[in-house]
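Researcher: Let's do a round of design. I'm pasting the structure tokens now; please hold your answer until I've finished.
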């Protein structure tokens, strides 16, 4: 296997990250995204290019950036050997545009096209990815950033989407095609051996001392949980999963970023001229470079802490009138399922394992016929999540954001993906303001494929 571990002191040639401020599309423009095989230099020099499935020839696909209140119109052309779809992760959109085969649309067959057309009501950092055979298709490259820009642009010198990923490749620098390995399905998920930022093993972006950067961190990995930190940068957390915080939080510790989660940071460059600042990833033996920021001369004056970003439309959560439901996570290695319902039939654990199904929610494996709950429009729902497994799970709700309900009744910041550690019990609440059928599933993609998914219905 090819390893990508690298100390932040190691030297290498820098490759540029994504452009800071791409051109804004007009509302009437229909973008064309071709999903097709392509190759890209993922491994270090001396290795061959990696064969991928790309969006318009690159992995990740181009950053889509539009203003808040605009519409995104995208014609997706499938030139892959498999049916596919695109899910627009975190966006409050019409249910028919959510991109989930078998729930909101038929899959886009090879050679066919499908047009997604929806409004962009909320500013923030979002992303798009395949929602068909996702363990394979996201790993092979079908992913990209979706940025909805605030009406009044905040005062930053550079705005940088950073798509953080890992990929499992062979010694020949090709994507390892063991996508249904029982160990991955039943343990922590598919973990890669090459760490990438915007598709690059060695990402770098020049900055000036005193610059204020907006770093839009997006974890697009199949299963890896990143522990991230800064060196030579002073940072504030401005938003989680696209939703602005009422008060920015000074960053004094590491950022834990589960699959599908996003964090917006404002960072002031404090490293001296001629040195480097870093975004680091921490492991048990220390910090490793993810992005290098070579620093040139600028201002040494200290800036005031940033004001909060403009809030998005609010959908108040009323805990006093909320309906409660439990969601129990079961199965996986070291807590094997003894039995569960699958496709409408009770099956024992051995039978489920032979079918590649290792996880259950409320003793049901895979998407059930009936929803976890049916909510009236505007109703507040509280879901208590109990992780009875030995592994973490990144639980993602489509179509709406939720808040965690803390033990003292306080509501946490809005999110669309919650990291549940093993043995934890936590509670979320949301206002059911978006009509339709919406998935609720683990975004460790192997876990979802092996049974950890359900859905909720919001009546019109």
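Researcher: That's everything. Go ahead.
Model: Designed sequence:
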């Amino acid at each position: 296997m090819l390893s990508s571990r690298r100390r932040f002191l190691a030297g290498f040639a820098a490759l540029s990250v994504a452009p800071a401020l791409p051109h804004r599309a007009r509302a009437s423009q229909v973008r064309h995204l071709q999903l097709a095989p392509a190759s890209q230099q993922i491994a270090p020099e001396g290795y061959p290019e990696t064969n991928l499935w790309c969006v318009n020839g690159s992995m990740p696909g181009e950053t889509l950036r539009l203003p808040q209140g605009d519409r995104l119109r995208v014609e997706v052309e499938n030139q892959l050997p498999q049916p596919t779809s695109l899910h627009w992760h975190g966006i409050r959109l019409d249910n028919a545009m959510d991109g989930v085969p078998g729930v909101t649309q038929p899959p886009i067959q090879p050679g066919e096209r499908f047009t997604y057309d929806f409004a962009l009501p909320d500013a923030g950092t979002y992303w798009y990815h395949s929602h068909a055979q996702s363990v394979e298709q996201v790993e092979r490259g079908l992913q990209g950033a979706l940025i909805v820009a605030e009406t009044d642009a905040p005062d930053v010198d550079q705005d940088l989407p950073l798509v953080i990923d890992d990929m499992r490749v062979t010694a020949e620098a090709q994507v390892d095609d063991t996508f249904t390995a029982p160990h991955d399905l039943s343990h922590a998920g598919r973990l890669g051996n090459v760490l990438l930022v915007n598709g690059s093993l060695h990402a770098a972006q020049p900055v000036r001392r005193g610059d204020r950067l907006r770093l839009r961190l997006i974890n697009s990995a199949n299963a890896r949980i990143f522990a991230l930190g800064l060196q030579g940068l002073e940072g504030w957390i401005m938003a989680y999963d696209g939703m602005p915080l009422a008060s920015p939080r000074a960053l004094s510790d590491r950022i834990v970023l589960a699959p599908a989660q996003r964090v917006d940071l404002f960072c002031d460059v404090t490293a001296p001229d001629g040195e480097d600042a870093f975004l680091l990833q921490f492991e048990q033996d220390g910090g490793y470079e993810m992005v290098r920021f070579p620093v040139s001369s600028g201002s040494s004056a200290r800036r005031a802490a940033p004001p909060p970003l403009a809030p998005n439309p609010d959908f108040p959560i009323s805990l006093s009138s909320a309906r409660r439901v439990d969601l129990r996570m079961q199965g996986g290695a070291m807590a094997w399922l003894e039995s569960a319902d699958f496709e409408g039939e009770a099956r024992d654990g051995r039978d489920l394992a032979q079918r590649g199904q290792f996880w259950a929610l409320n003793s049901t494996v895979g998407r059930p016929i009936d929803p976890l709950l049916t909510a009236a429009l505007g109703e507040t729902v509280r879901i208590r999540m109990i992780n009875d497994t030995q592994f973490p799970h990144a639980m993602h709700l489509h179509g709406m954001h939720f808040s965690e309900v803390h033990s003292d009744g306080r509501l946490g910041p809005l999110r669309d993906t919650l990291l549940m550690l093993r043995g934890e019990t936590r509670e979320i609440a949301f206002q059911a303001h978006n009509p339709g059928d919406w998935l609720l599933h683990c975004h460790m993609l192997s876990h979802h494929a092996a049974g950890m998914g359900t859905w909720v219905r919001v009546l019109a």
